[in-house]
Specification:
eight-stranded parallel β-barrel; homotetramer
Chain lengths: ~325, ~325, ~325, ~325
């Protein structure tokens, strides 16, 4: 951490700061220039609050050099994390997985039919929304607990592990049979929820917030991991920008950067990112080509009738085309 | 609502859509051009899911004409909502209020001292964080329930109503004596929390999300209001943009737009928006000048030692200067 | 174009608008609802100024249905534009090209050495900056006219066509021997320059502005094309967002959208988008996978000494690795 | 400037960098930690290219401490720049000015009528567009040279100094009688134009680019000033964000920050920022309240017929109301 002192900093206050920093077990390397004095703090600075120091009257600025996340940091954990769901379904470490299914669970018939269809088309993990975060209180809010029950049935019939989104810590018990719990973009910084999920022994699928930086995403993963649950899967699903041609802007540079900075698996959701079914195919190929560990794709047996998020769902046929194309790219780059 | 059909839309599918829309109690006004057919849907379209229709193969696009929020909409509720906290402290309807206090409650001595100081300087409502949303799991997370107790003590001693942030629906009971419950920017779309708050009879201070549009902020207010709780105070606290000179970009156009679109009170938080104490004064004046109903300002008796968010807190002296300046502006514009 | 009239619009003013619109050769289809009246304008509305109409007191809003660009629009020109540079070097229509070379031309030796190296590694078109747009007036501004001369020499020796950036219309004559003129992101809306380039018979490489929408990029292409020059190559090079982990955010959804909306070739510049050489390889693969018609990549024989934009340049060896990887992806997806 | 070296940096390369830096007349203060080595560069680092150093293999990152602008920097020029247009019309240094007039000059009658009206309503400087930057090549492009002639006539009749936008360096001669030359947002980084304007002895009104940072705006001012022309007026006119309720997001924090960082006058254009005439009044008040040195406001005698940008123009009556309100705020804050 670098602390830049003001030109005219009061000497006594500077001393107080120096003494306090030493109590925090960091060493100070001072570099005094004509116009500016710079301190390099050496040691474990992860617990020092940059905001606190930046607020001091005598300080011009503070810059972190080392990342504030530790357990998610590849520097301290060079090998890829591999999450094993059993039945040879592994996420991360060179294993590419398709998470597919409908935006919302709507009925037993629907979820089972789609589960079979996506399995046949190459998906290994079934997704389906039971609790649905919707901008409008008047929009369909999901089948909730009933939806989870239908998903579990689909799991039983097809043998596919399932992933579904949680919206509140008080619902954790309902997710007992769910293999992977998803945290949606809007809850990426619901820290109370993250803390509760950190106590579980179950993979967490953590979606990047609409305006979250890569570092903030990793800090949210750190919340879960610091609680003891190291099974975190990160998901890039588009960020909010000025562009209106697509719902959000898929940030594939983030995938490449994340693969450097962390050992956690990184999955891409091109369906939500673009909000346009026609773009799912090219963006899936791009995701695989730049090193993603998997894709989460919305598939619906009847996109014309989906109760929510219809525009972004593929038919099983088109999804099968995508899984084949992705496989070709993965093989080509091996 | 406007539905734009594709050039080459299949006639049978178009019929199915028309029939379905009629079951939703909307009338269709058709306008057929050489290249495009446009339908104007007339009636209550607030429950029609634009995404659903946009997803249809035959549809080129859908545009809402009327706003999707109703209870928060000034069109249906022209008079300003006024929230009465008792003791002649009213928010909205031409009453300007200062919400002031520390970022975090740290000790009995601290909160009581600040409470007295901000009251003397012109604040009517005491703010103080007990539950603190922090990006890092390693940062100070607030005194939590104990912090609320200290706030209640400060309320007892000074007679000031208090506002504090909630982070999880399971904590609602702890907020019994708290006069206004704050929903932070990161929880603006924590819909489960909003639903629970909608069942209370207590004012909710709803902060705009870091990348939330004005319409989304109003939809989150609608979540609370549709549950029966009409006492919502909106707060603009800066949005996330590419600019790095300030922590966030305070969006005062949003204040002016909100005053048009909704009857709810609109408060500005210049402390969090800029993250720089020196900017609080000019931005407070700007907020008052453009029609805000109040200001939430961080004040600390010793900003140099604040446990969090130090850089943005004012001393009581500087805060007093701000309240006086704001008062002059309000008087000048009367 | 849709015009939404206000509820309480003055009938006389509405009549005046209707009459005026008819003089513009558009037909009005009226749809009168309880709360809103909507007009669908049918005919050639591309010359009607939406801002003008939106400004009228009686109008609530205006929405375009058809795109405001015509010559760049795939609807009116379904086949891909193919730009032929001779020697079987074609851009667009299924031909994939690599534009490679240094950020800046620095010396005869440097540009010729790199030209040979990138040719050997698979590039067909040599890029090199002579006029350099730099944020700081104190930074190296390029070799300017002398740089162009060196590029022409490199062209002579290697036989490669060249592309270089223009910064002012008064320099056009200097670009006589240059095969493709580049318009940089900062000049994407330098309309006077675009108009002058529209008079040439030479391909224009048009980079997307840092905060330009896809539609604005196409409108800038339209400026060039409406002047008579239909040889426009579009380039996605990253947009400005809140994310700071990369210099800009590469928007590959834009590539997929552009391939739908326009017949013009679309090239991606991953070097400038990310500003990080290590990310060029994965982002190049992603670009090829999602349908780009080419890549512009910075290559330097000695990145450690480049006078500008060093961090994003590859060595020829690494560039060769990229061209091979891209080729594999293109073959896989055929 | 701070240079952070990589953990495993090659010692020989580190030596080469150290030697090179010394040739640049900067001194290196080294701070060696367990995991990182940090160099503080002391001396005039404004000519050192951070990109160049960041690109080196041995370097983890580079951070500037001192600002890269000098002539625009308040540190080296503490007193406000005051631009004197004669007739006691001064900009900056506590003088507040209104720049008002139509978006476009349309006819002699129009510009003279508006000039008289805005003068009567309190404006001191007449604005009017002759060269118009329009997104679409099919939109009205302004009266160009003829428009400037009409402005000069209005100047003669009313005695008001005039400001108008330049779009290309080749037009400079046409602006001889124009008192202030405006550089539009889209040309803020048209560096060739800035260089030419730096050679003039005439005030330049420099608008912030749609996605330009405060620092970039100051660097563009530095381009003009480093050429010898120190008369630069900065203008905040809204930035591009995800919000769609207003055309752009007016960034008033930037005004407060600019007043700290630079001695140049800062004017706000609320008309273009919001694109909505109704918001001009509250945003004008906010601008004055937070310390702006002036306002540029679009006024039209017949907003319903304006050839461009109608929605954002005020009538002279409403403009008079704004000048009076602003005056009250300025008086209140004195």
């Amino acid at each position: 951490m670098i602390v830049i002192l003001k030109n005219d900093a009061d000497a006594q206050k500077v001393d107080i700061l120096a003494q306090w920093l030493e109590t925090q077990n960091v060493e100070i390397h001072k570099s005094v220039g004509e116009y500016t004095t710079v301190w390099g703090l050496v040691g474990d600075t992860s617990k020092i609050d940059t905001d606190l120091i930046e607020g001091l009257e005598i300080v011009e600025g503070v810059r972190r050099i080392s990342e504030p996340y530790k357990q998610a940091n590849r520097k301290f954990h060079p090998d890829d994390t591999v999450i094993d769901l059993g039945n040879s379904i592994k996420i991360g470490g060179g294993n590419f997985q398709f998470f597919a299914g409908p935006c919302s669970v709507e009925s037993e018939e629907q979820i089972i039919e789609i589960a079979k269809a996506v399995k046949a088309a190459g998906a290994n993990i079934l997704r389906g929304g039971a609790f649905k975060p919707r901008t409008s209180p008047y929009a369909f809010q999901g089948m909730r607990a009933d939806g989870l029950k239908l998903l579990l049935q689909a799991k039983k019939i097809t043998g596919m592990p399932i992933v579904s989104e949680i919206m509140d810590a008080s619902h954790i018990d309902l997710f007992e049979g769910v293999d992977i719990i998803q945290v949606g973009a809007r809850n990426m910084q619901n820290f109370e929820l993250l803390k509760q999920l950190g106590k579980l022994d179950k993979p967490i699928f953590l979606k990047r917030g609409l305006s979250a930086t890569v570092e903030e995403l990793l800090m949210s993963a750190e919340y879960i991991m610091s609680g003891g649950n190291e099974k975190v899967i990160l998901c890039e699903r588009g960020i909010r920008t000025f562009e209106t041609a697509t719902r959000n802007t898929l940030d594939l540079s983030a995938v490449a950067i994340l693969k450097e900075k962390t050992h956690l698996p990184v999955v891409v959701d091109p369906s939500h990112a673009s909000g346009i079914a026609r773009l799912v195919e090219p963006l899936s190929y791009a995701s695989a080509a730049c090193g993603a560990d998997g894709l989460m794709i919305e598939v619906h047996n009847n996109p014309q009738k989906a109760l929510c998020d219809g525009p972004q769902a593929l038919t099983p046929d088109k999804f099968a085309r995508v899984t084949q194309g992705v496989q070709k790219i993965i093989n080509a780059l091996k």
